């Protein structure tokens, strides 16, 4: 494994307007992966990824790989993994976790943001994962274009994105009515907030994919029930029941549409789309000021 060496930044946002997770690693690890939300996410991915992807031990590029759980999962499945991550703090934790869990596996840690990958890891890749990253970027559409450019023809992109429509729904459920009416849903990426700055809609993903020559092969909702519960499951039995419900309905209409995250398999078409067929317009999101924290 290689070690990260990027210098600490004084602004929480990168030159691209992205929220790298330096300063957020502890909070992210505790608030997401330290609880039921993280457990559900990983348990659902463990079941969904083998169904949604054609996995044949291909080399994987994990973009914005964070704490390394997904990289570890793919390594366990026999894939050589390159984990790219711009946050030195996240990479350090990923390195520690992966060394412990997957000592014998082939995992390269690359201290780089998505925008640098066409130079630093051009591929082309037949398998890329980018989970829960686009919503932290200033220009998620440009990022999806970069990912499309890194894919080999016929290559698969496992994309997971924070669902803006689910964010609205959970705000209403929590009683944040004026915030929902004003459509002030996004975070600003400042301080130690974990509300994403660019939550995305299914309509945006569909439109951008069409424009970029990516075919949407599969879609699922991650946590279609959990984030709307009035009280979290208290017992192991209830947690198990909830997982079974999440699993049963994560690909069933209309439930998947309100998953906290939307998980896609996008496949790069063999031939690029012509400009004439790429004129799908996409909805824009309004800028907001943050009042309530909406955790991942
Ligand atoms: C919510 S975490 C997701 C981490 C991991 N993919 C997962 O699913 O647990 C978002 C990650 O995106 C990273 N990130 C932010 N801007 C990025 C960029 N421009 N390129 C790549 N990763 C970026 C952050 O540093 C952080 O580790």
Automatic annotation (TrEMBL):
Highest taxon, organism lineage: Bacteria
Any one of the GO BP annotations: methylation
Positions bound to S-adenosyl-L-methionine: 41, 64-65, 85, 131
Transmembrane segments: none
Catalytic activity field: 5-carboxymethoxyuridine(34) in tRNA + S-adenosyl-L-methionine = 5-methoxycarbonylmethoxyuridine(34) in tRNA + S-adenosyl-L-homocysteine
CDD domains reported for this sequence: AdoMet_MTases
Comp. bias regions, Low complexity: 273-289
Family: Belongs to the class I-like SAM-binding methyltransferase superfamily. CmoM family.
PANTHER family, alphabetized: TRANS-ACONITATE 2-METHYLTRANSFERASE-RELATED (PTHR43861)
Protein name: tRNA 5-carboxymethoxyuridine methyltransferase
Originating species: Halomonas icarae
């Amino acid at each position: 494994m290689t070690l990260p060496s990027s210098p600490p930044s004084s602004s929480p946002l990168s030159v691209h307007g992205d929220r790298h997770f330096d300063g957020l690693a502890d909070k992210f690890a505790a608030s997401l992966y330290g609880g039921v939300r993280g457990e559900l996410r990983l348990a659902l991915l463990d079941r969904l990824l083998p169904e949604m992807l054609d996995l044949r031990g291909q080399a994987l590029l994990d973009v914005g790989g964070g704490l390394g759980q997904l990289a570890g999962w793919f390594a366990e499945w026999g894939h050589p993994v390159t984990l790219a991550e711009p946050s030195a703090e996240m990479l350090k934790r990923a390195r520690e976790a992966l060394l412990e869990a997957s000592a014998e596996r082939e995992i390269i840690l690359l201290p780089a943001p998505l925008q640098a990958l066409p130079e630093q890891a051009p591929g082309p890749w037949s398998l890329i994962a980018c989970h829960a990253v686009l919503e932290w970027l200033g220009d998620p559409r440009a990022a999806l274009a970069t990912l499309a450019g890194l894919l080999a023809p016929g290559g698969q992109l496992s994309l997971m994105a924070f669902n803006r429509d689910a964010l609205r729904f959970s705000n209403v459920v929590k009683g944040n009515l004026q915030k929902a009416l004003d459509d002030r849903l996004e975070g600003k990426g400042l301080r130690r907030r974990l509300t994403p700055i660019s939550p995305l809609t299914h309509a945006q993903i569909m439109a951008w994919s069409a424009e970029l020559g990516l075919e949407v092969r599969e879609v699922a909702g991650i946590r279609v029930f959990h984030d709307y519960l009035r009280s979290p499951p208290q017992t192991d039995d209830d947690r198990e029941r909830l997982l079974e419900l999440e699993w049963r309905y994560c690909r069933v209409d209309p439930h998947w549409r309100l998953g906290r995250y939307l998980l896609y398999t996008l496949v790069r078409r063999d031939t690029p789309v012509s400009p004439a067929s790429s004129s799908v317009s996409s909805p824009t999101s309004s800028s907001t000021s943050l009042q309530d924290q909406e955790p991942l």
